[in-house]
Design goal:
Elements (H helix, E strand, L loop, with lengths): L2 H8 L1 H20 L7 H75 L4 E10 L8 E3 L12 E6 L2 E11 L4 E5 L6 E6 L5 E6 L7 E7 L11 E4 L11 E9 L6 E8 L8 E6 L4
Antiparallel strand pairs: 1-2, 1-12, 2-5, 3-4, 3-12, 4-5, 6-7, 6-9, 7-8, 8-11, 9-10, 10-11
């Protein structure tokens, strides 16, 4: 009949138990001739098998429930451990960041002590959203002694570098025009070869500078990587402030001067602290 195999498959455990129980009873009948005459013993044997089976099922169920509870407890502890680990990692990152910031502030403080001019320390609080190198805003204004035209420098990677000059001052903030702006001009000098020129921001590369009007005969003396500093001409910027390093030279046959590509000393994308120099007070 087609229904019997299906019934057996669905109730495999019950059928197996029944078969084993029947086999046990038959073996008892064949091995003990007195069993038929002792129904009490037959009943006792039957119930003992039932009790053993029930005890085994009860133990299995209890152990299963206990295992599930233990698994849930372990999962909860694992999630808690993961949360603590993430918190420890966050604290570790914060501590490392504080150590770096503390070291940087120590370096900034040591640099500021060596400046030969009176200065105003400031923090960069904003950049022009249209072009991150066009204007820079700092958290110092007229109430702190700021004036238009004051030079701005920074300290990075062990060197002081020219940032730009103050072009707009309000009560508590000021706007700085960086030297990477194509409309910014700085009288400059090659530190080793001593040739003068004019530095401005590059029209094609926002993070580079161009030094123009360098005498053509300098092509034999200028070295790649040579430092470019402020010349002090025009009295807008003090003499000797680092501007950048020579990366490329262009000498056109029909022109009487060289054009140098200069990489700024200051990494403007990482600029956080600046110093505004008061050249009128030493």
């Amino acid at each position: 009949m087609p229904g019997i195999p299906s019934f057996v498959r669905k109730n495999k455990n019950g059928v197996t138990f029944t078969v084993i129980l029947v086999l046990c009873l038959l073996m008892m009948l064949f091995t003990n001739r007195n069993v038929i005459l002792q129904p009490k013993k037959v009943g006792q044997s039957f119930f003992s098998v039932f009790q053993i089976s029930l005890h085994a099922v009860t133990n299995w169920f209890t152990e299963t429930v206990t295992s599930i509870r233990e698994l849930r407890r372990l999962q909860t502890e694992l999630e808690q451990a993961r949360s603590r680990l993430m918190e420890y990692e966050r604290v570790s990152r914060d501590l490392a960041g504080l150590r770096r910031e503390n070291q940087e502030l120590r370096e900034q403080l040591g640099f500021a002590r060596d400046l030969p001019f009176r200065y105003i320390a400031a923090e960069v609080i904003a950049r022009d959203p249209g072009n991150q190198f066009s204007t820079i805003m700092v958290n110092r204004g007229t109430i702190h002694g700021m004036r238009e035209g004051m030079p701005v420098i920074a300290f990075q990677r062990g060197l002081q570098g020219l940032v730009g000059r103050v072009v707009l001052v309000s009560l508590a903030t000021s706007t700085v025009q960086p030297i990477t702006d194509p409309n910014s001009y700085v009288a400059a000098r090659l530190q080793s070869s001593r040739f003068d020129g004019l530095i401005a921001g590059s029209q094609s590369m926002a993070d580079m500078l161009v030094m123009s009007y360098v005498k053509k005969l300098a092509v034999e003396e200028v070295q790649y990587g040579e430092l470019v500093i402020t010349s002090g001409m025009g009295r807008l910027f003090p003499e000797g402030i680092h501007i950048g390093r020579v990366r490329e030279m262009t000498a056109k046959g029909y022109e009487a001067s060289l054009e140098l590509e200069v990489e700024p000393i200051v990494d403007f994308s990482r600029l956080e602290f600046v110093y505004i120099i008061d050249t009128e007070q030493k």
